[in-house]
Hints:
Elements: H1 2-9, H2 12-29, H3 31-34, H4 66-102, H5 104-118, H6 122-133, H7 137-163, H8 167-174, H9 179-215, H10 227-234, H11 243-270
Helix pairs in contact: 2-4, 2-11, 4-5, 4-7, 4-9, 5-7, 6-7, 7-9, 8-9, 9-10, 9-11, 10-11
Amino acid sequence: MKGSSLIFRKNKSFICFCTLAMILVLISLLAPHIAPHDPLKTNMTKSLQGPSGEFLLGTDNLGRCLLSRLLYGALNSLKMTFSLVIIAFIVGTAMGMVSGYLGGIADTIVMRFSDVFLAFPGIIFAIAIAGVLGPSSINTVIALAVVDWVKYARVTRSLVMSVRKKDYIKAAKMGGAKEYKIILKYILPNIIPSLIVMATMDIGTMMLEISSLSFLGLGAQPPTPEWGYMLNEGRNYMQTVPGLMIYPGIAIFVTVMIFNLLGDGIRDMLDPNKEYGR
């Protein structure tokens, strides 16, 4: 208990950003209950209005409440981002475990397969896949997952190859432990902290990727509120009503910063070489 308190005292920034991340997620989940207006309801007589008592952040070109769309946009953006991170994490980790633990022909197949995806710029490849599948939120997540699993596979492979040489792994094999037990009981717990840090820091990056595809019209489709698509909708009014781009841009920036700094905090917490309380 004393060691844990020392760790948390030394990581006040981690606690701060963890709290901010939870608040952000909570706000997105409560969007249907706290949004002042229906984000899809249009009213052309009130289009492009500035902030007022009725519309705290004003309205867009179709008279929809901008604050309500930002709140619902948080829900949609975070839902897509977390889905992408989870898919890339699971697929990449599984492929990396197979490659790193089995070695041989399995390692060669997985690594050469990943080389195919690394041969092209990731975002360009994702745009091509999303273009073939068609514009939608689900297809955007699929397109980016096809690209983003590779880095998890390579990092996992490297970690597994390092851990499998340890003496306790050799002892487990000599003791007759089954392969799946060695992987789940001895290897995975030793590599999962590094992968969690990587996934946390990837949340911001993947949100930017999703927003980029939505900005290009390949992600969420109208009238669905999503921060990247809201940027696309507001670009024609940047000079007259800059808030249409500024507000979703700030939302993306703040969210990315929170999760990036949270990832840094988690990395410091899980770093076994860091000396706490000295």
